[in-house]
């Protein structure tokens, strides 16, 4: 609550000389799209905008320049604040809220042991919209993410995508949402009519073993027995917890339309979880991404950038890790 009301401390040294950087080549190629996003940020009060004539004023205030970048396949402006990332120390915000395939599949197996045989488990996927952008900077650090784009200066008031501690400063909020929704749903399981035929001991055992909300930064996966109104209650508890902790407009309507229903399988963090067959596999989009990158490798090209090699390596490691972590359960 203190971080939400006062903003986060990013720890960068204050008073450094200003140095405003031009956008990356990719960002410059998507000028119109990024401009629309930036005007949206200003409208949402995520940023201040200043004309070029205010550069001297920003320099006097020691605003820290950041480079604007853009990720086309995600339609996401990303600030590339190299100096801020280098100069910002670990200010002790703790680990990133993340549960991986191993933890999710372990929970599925535990559910299989305690739920009646043949009972279907339904999965639902939720996502925040502009998640990190919801986390305000402490007033002392407003100006530490200032970037020049198309002749205007944009001063962010929030932690941007691209900042290395953004996920850490954001993590307390999804963890709080998860804990509140889990507690609400467990209390409901104890009194719901769907389990009224069970003994108190059996219900208590199911409630204790149920771990049906997982999150990875701003992504959520909900799991519930497909009995009566239990799916509706779980969805309501997750939705209301988000509103209570992060406010109106925190949930992505687009993601809700795409994945916000209960089904036997759902894609979560690039992985398809199948609750009927108790299996997990890498989503086809990850294989397509790997294939497209490998197709650009030709005998005529003698060298590649380090970033390109790192992206290929990252996708390969992710695919190998997913399948290797599931193997012990098979």
Protein model, in words:
Helices cover 43% and strands 16% of the residues. Helix 8 (172-191) runs antiparallel to helix 9. The protein is built from 13 helices and 11 strands. It is globular. Strand 10 and strand 11 form a beta hairpin. With 330 residues, it is an alpha+beta fold. The strands form 4 sheets. A 3-stranded antiparallel beta sheet has the order 1-6-5, covered by helices on one side.
List keywords for this structure.
single chain; 330 residues; three-stranded antiparallel β-sheet; 11 strands; alpha+beta; globular
Strand order of the largest sheet: 1-6-5
Q: Say what oligomer this is.
A: single chain
Query: What low-confidence regions span 5 or more consecutive residues with pLDDT below 50?
Result: none
- The SSE string, one letter per element, is HHHEHEEHHEEEHHHEEHHEEEHH
Report the average pLDDT across residues: 83
Main beta-sheet annotation = 3 strands, antiparallel
Question: Fraction of residues in helices?
Answer: 40-55%
Shape: globular
Please report the total strand number as a whole number.
Answer: 11
Structural class by sheet pairing and helices: alpha+beta
Q: If you compute it from the alpha carbons, what radius of gyration comes out, rounded to the nearest whole angstrom?
A: 23 Å
Strand residues, percent: 15-25%
SSE layout and pairing:
Layout: H1 2-6, H2 25-29, H3 31-43, E1 47-51, H4 55-60, E2 67-71, E3 76-80, H5 82-87, H6 101-114, E4 121-127, E5 146-149, E6 152-156, H7 166-170, H8 172-191, H9 200-209, E7 213-216, E8 219-225, H10 230-246, H11 253-259, E9 265-268, E10 271-274, E11 279-282, H12 284-295, H13 306-326
Antiparallel strand pairs: 1-6, 2-3, 4-8, 5-6, 7-8, 9-10, 10-11
């Amino acid at each position: 609550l203190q971080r939400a009301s006062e903003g986060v401390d990013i720890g960068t040294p204050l008073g450094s000389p200003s140095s405003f950087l031009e956008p990356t080549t990719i960002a410059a190629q998507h000028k119109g799209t990024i401009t629309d996003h930036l005007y949206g940020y200003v409208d949402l009060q995520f940023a201040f905008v200043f004309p070029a004539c205010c550069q001297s004023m920003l320099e006097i205030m020691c605003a820290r320049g950041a480079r604007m970048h853009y990720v086309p396949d995600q339609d996401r402006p990303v600030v590339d604040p190299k100096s801020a990332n280098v100069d910002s120390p670990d200010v002790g915000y703790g680990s990133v809220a993340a549960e991986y395939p191993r933890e999710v599949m372990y929970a599925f197996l535990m559910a299989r042991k305690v739920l009646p045989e043949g009972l279907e488990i339904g999965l639902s996927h939720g996502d925040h919209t502009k998640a990190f952008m919801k986390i305000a900077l402490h007033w002392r650090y407003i100006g530490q993410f200032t970037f020049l784009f198309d002749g205007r200066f944009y001063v962010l008031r929030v932690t941007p995508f691209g900042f290395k501690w953004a996920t850490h400063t954001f993590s307390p909020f999804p963890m709080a949402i998860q804990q509140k929704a889990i507690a609400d749903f467990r209390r409901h399981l104890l009194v719901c009519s769907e389990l009224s035929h069970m003994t108190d001991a059996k219900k208590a055992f199911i409630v204790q073993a149920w771990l049906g909300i997982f999150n990875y930064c701003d992504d959520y996966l909900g799991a519930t027995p497909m009995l009566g109104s239990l799916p509706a209650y779980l969805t309501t508890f997750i939705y209301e917890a988000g509103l209570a902790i992060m406010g109106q407009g925190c949930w992505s309507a687009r993601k809700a339309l795409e994945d916000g229903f209960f089904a036997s399988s759902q894609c979560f963090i690039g992985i398809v979880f199948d609750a009927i067959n108790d299996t997990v596999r890498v989503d086809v989009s990850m294989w397509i991404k790997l294939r497209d990158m490998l197709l650009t490798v030709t005998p005529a090209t003698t060298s590649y950038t380090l970033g390109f090699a790192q992206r290929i390596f990252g996708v390969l490691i992710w695919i190998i890790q997913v399948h290797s972590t599931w193997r012990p359960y098979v």
